[in-house]
Design a protein that fits this description.
The protein is an alpha/beta fold. It is built from 13 helices and 9 strands. Helix 5 crosses helix 6. The mean pLDDT is 94. The protein binds iron/sulfur cluster.
Length: 344
Amino acid sequence: MERVNTRIDRDEARWLWLNASDEEMRRRASEARARFHAPDTCTYLVMRIINYTNVCVAQCDYCAFYRLPGHPEGYVLSTEAVFAKLDELLALGGDLAAFNGGFNPHLPLTYYCDLFAAIRERYGNRLEFYALTIAEFMYLADHAKLSYAETAARFKQAGVRWITGGGSEILTEDFRARHSKFKYTVAQYFEAQRAIVEAGLKTTATMVIGFDESLDERLEHLERTRQFQDRTGGLASFLCWTFKPYFTNLGGIEIGTAEYLRHLALARIYLDNIPRIRTSVLTQNERALEGLQYGADDFDLPIEDEVTQKAGATISLDFEKILGAARRLGFEPAYRHVTSRNGT
Ligand code: SF4
């Protein structure tokens, strides 16, 4: 990926965050966006997150979704239940599913490989799926006593093409020690992501803000992401969303959209090697579309995600209303299909 001469470092990013007006952030982010995208265009897709199990032993304090093994509300979806969700997604005009569950010690690697192979066989290229997040991928590798490379190869053999960068939240060791100490270190996270890239699978970068992270922690996350992309070129996109605190042990007050938009702008300016920066309708609803003015170029229209919905997120199926919000801001949305082999 070609770098621009205007690459900023952490000190400059800190200065921008603390001193630049919203208008200045918008302007700088839009200039950075224009390196990759026509100013009045954006893309979107209709997708659903399939939370195949809520049983998890990681016990992150910011999570309202998980249930410990043995809890009466714990569940695992059958293959038929997953098919029903995929059929509904197709009927609603979507073609991307993302699997996200917990660290369930009762599910062997074969559960996942069989499920993904069955999906590929039944749907072929009519839909694409993000099989797991990196956090789940790491747990499964450990549980199966396989290396990350071996685990990635098994998934590839089962028809998997994508493993997303989910489960990153804030990529600093301090943050993980404070909030998710059973969820692997940052070094392990990138080691796993490198193995995924080297196996020929596609992956993404994610970030969640609005916990108790400091500005320096946010900047460290962006820096590590940019470095990984410099080294591998394997990140298809960057998606940031906001922590929903309701019913979590961590709790707290949700950050406002204005702060989210400034952070999107900062991410666009800082991540000069990732063309696709995505804004989060799932956590910001229609106001996420303002992110298109702050450097974002792409978004999901989600139809389900139990993890964030349990913690306070709300979902609308009135797609035309949401797309209308993009049009009113001067952007013409085009559907982006991830379903072709070369889809990104
Ligand atoms: S965020 Fe994920 S890994 Fe952490 S407790 Fe919730 S389900 Fe488990």
